[in-house]
Amino acid sequence: MLGEVVVKWVEGIQTLLPMCLTGGYFCSLRLAPKQTECFVRSHLEYAIRTGREARFLMCVYFEEHWEDNLEDFRSSLNIQSPPPPRKLD
């Protein structure tokens, strides 16, 4: 669920649609305490940076890029690699 919350925040920042912004906010309230800590410490900053700096993702035909190298594709969209996963115990 943590990844879906990050996606909602990126979508909300890029589109500025109220339903996306409130979805990201309220979904983040449903995270477990350890997930919330991980989200606040690293993933929220990543989502904000990606939403601001990446190409507008709603116009990307992802289906046309299945065979592309992931790092090259991220670079073409101006998306940095996500924070490393943390063990949530």
UniProtKB/TrEMBL annotation:
Pfam families: Coq4. InterPro entries: Coq4. One of its GO terms (biological process) is ubiquinone biosynthetic process. GO terms for cellular component: mitochondrion. It comes from the Eukaryota. Keywords: Ubiquinone biosynthesis. This is Uncharacterized protein.
